[in-house]
Write a structure and sequence with these properties.
about 650 residues, 6-stranded antiparallel beta sheet, 4-stranded antiparallel beta sheet, alpha+beta
Length: about 650
Amino acid sequence: MGDIFAKLKENMAKEDIVIQELMYDEKEYNKVFSRLYDYLKRGFENKEIREFLIKFKTTSHSETMLMEIRHLITNMILWKPIIDFQGINEFDDSYIVDCTRLTKNNIKSYIDNKIIIPFRGNISIKKSNKALSELIFALSKIGSDFSTIMAMSLNVETFIDLGERYPRFDEITKISIPDDLQPVEVEKYLLDLKNEYVSIIMNDDQDNMIKPLIASGGGIKIDQLAEFGISGGLKPDLYGNTIPIVINSNFIYGGLTNLIHYYIDGLAGRKSVIMNKTVMGLSGHFSRMLNMLATTVTLNPSIDDCGSVHPIKILVKDKKILARFKGRYYTTILNTPYSVLRGDEFDLIGKIIYVRSPATCASKNGICNTCYGKMADINKNINIGGYGATKTTKKLSQDILSTKHLLKTNSQEIKFNDEFYNFFSVKGDEIVLNDELKDDIDNWKIVLPMTSLTPDEEYEGQGVSYATHYFDLVNVKTNETFRMREVADTKLIISEDFFKLITTVDKKNKERNATMLTNIDEDMIIFLFEVTNNELTKPLYSIMALLNRVEHEGCKTISEMCSKLLDLMLESGIDLLSVHAEVLIRVLIRSKSNILEFPNFTEYGPESQYQILTVLNALVRNKSVTIGLSTQDLKRQIMNPLTYLKDGTSYLDEMFK
């Protein structure tokens, strides 16, 4: 090992590496890279070698800089496409990546801003894709070449070591979640613990095997880590509700520690199997229909500007929304010149912008460059409609298939008016008296108006048969009355003990369906409720409803449809630029006067000039007869006179010959 280190020092001390010069000599660049890579592989376990400082300059006239050999190698991988594109005029510090904080997001940002955007339009798509493919392969090769040497594997010893050095880490691993919290509070409690847990790992001043996996952004799922090392948390049932019993253990200390936890985990585990059986067909059918329809939309690079006067209206709510419109033509005032959005115009946050969009492109033969934006230079050789449909529906199918997504809860918060909390507490899925204010309840009674009671067949036979959406709290001296109702109008199931108590005639007041609070035992459950689980797949189903239901989730205009679809894509984690979502909206738009035709968006006019169809209706009423006949309702289409007015062509025509 000493010989390798001596040779490394000898070879690297001769002269500085000048990056700018290497960029015009690919052979020499590869030679320097291979030599550094070989030194690192042969001596990586030696700290002196892997942290050896290499001298280099960005240009011949710049100052000498120092960088660890491992970090310079990573940077040289990221610089390689620039050589393939025949270099740049002036290589500077902005091209140097801080490898101590390297994540997949940093890499993506570098590729976008230093490789794709500066060279798009000047480098062929084939050459660009080849260079990027080689870059990604070279980065992935680091893992296969060095993971074994670095002993990059997880075991319990990693967690024990962190717990010994950080008592709080060990405390979180052994923590017990309070049992008097409602599900949404449990989720918040666990989220705070998870963030603290990850913070300890990432700020560890010594090496641990979990840190690089988290830092990469793709090596480990944080939620899975939390379930493994903190708590199993809450699980969903089969009916879209949250089971309000916390699995108060983890897989480091004992796993599933009792029969109840086994039952809950087993019940939740069945959910994904049932969903795969019952819902995958629905999502697959929707995916096929959307792909068939959207594939009709292509890009026409020969049309620079279609002349559309109907941009979509977008509220830039945050940085995430702004980033989804990067490279698009926009203006803040209608009928003024458009500019290209860079994505860093943070002063636009909170404001309305008007964006040229594929949804309202006036071109009848492919989307124009202006409406599609700068992505036209990159996507000119692909089917933009098919790409957008595939990327959107793929997420739906994957999340239904993925058990780990379906078993995460996102519970509805149970919230009452302020007066409620002066007398009652919410614990889990139960409502009980508030112990802290017991002395103040002598003059108050609960009244259940007869009109509020509804039979609850689901709980009949279990001692519970009635529910209500509200109840009254009345002061017997002043007659002051407060109506208690959950904010989201959640159904309150009357417990067996409380139902018996309140339906017994109060002999003193001779009043039915009412009782003094002092008659209620402090440990009596008054009401129960079901906690709705806002599952991660819900926004994905909302996408299906938005595109394939007549109501379109309440959207009336193209701008509202585009905004809603973008919000749902962000909520469901679909990593896609807005332009691809807008292509999916375009295929649903038809002229108000002729359902087979696209509106004329080069003319000013009221929004009533267009109509928005569902995916199924847009397929059946497509101008191409072959697309319509490839869907469903074949008999009805053949008998419909509208079918014989269709004269459009499509990619399916060849299959009907």
